[in-house]
Amino acid sequence: MHVDVRKRDDVVVLELEGKLTAGLGDQLLRDALDELLGEGWRKILVNLSQVGFMDSAGVGELVSGLRTAQRVGADLRLLNTNERVHSTLSIARLLPIFKIYASEDEAVVEFGRA
């Protein structure tokens, strides 16, 4: 898996590409989130459009990231969950806990309202 970070106003966007699975994928996500939260970023948008597969470790890391963010007063939201990722989150009954957006522009506007 590959992780790119870019900033848009006061929102940081994590671009994930590849498989979000046990081992390297979940560790890269954890490290990126820990670093961003440590730097003081409080609005984090995770783009999952290029994630082709996510296992239970990947799901667990998203939940862990959300909880960690909430603990420090930050907000983590998801962007562009493709059909496979959306289905995985649905099966795990996690859709209600995440705010998910289809458009980056919409997500940034909604962050501004929070």
Structural commentary:
This protein has 114 residues and is an alpha/beta fold. It has a single domain (2-103), classed as STAS domain (Transcription Regulator spoIIAA, 2-Layer Sandwich). It is 44% helix and 32% strand. The chain is built from 4 helices and 5 strands, in the order ββαβαβαβα. The protein has helices spanning 24-38, 56-71, 83-91, 104-113, and strands at 2-8, 11-20, 43-54, 75-79, 100-101. The chain has a 5-stranded mixed sheet with strand order 1-2-3-4-5, with helices on both faces. Helix 1 (24-38) packs parallel to helix 2. It is globular and about 30 Å long. The N and C termini lie far apart (31 Å).
Query: In the CATH scheme, what's the topology name?
Result: Transcription Regulator spoIIAA
**CATH homology group:** STAS domain
The helix content is 40-55%
Question: What oligomeric state best describes the polypeptide chains here?
Answer: single chain
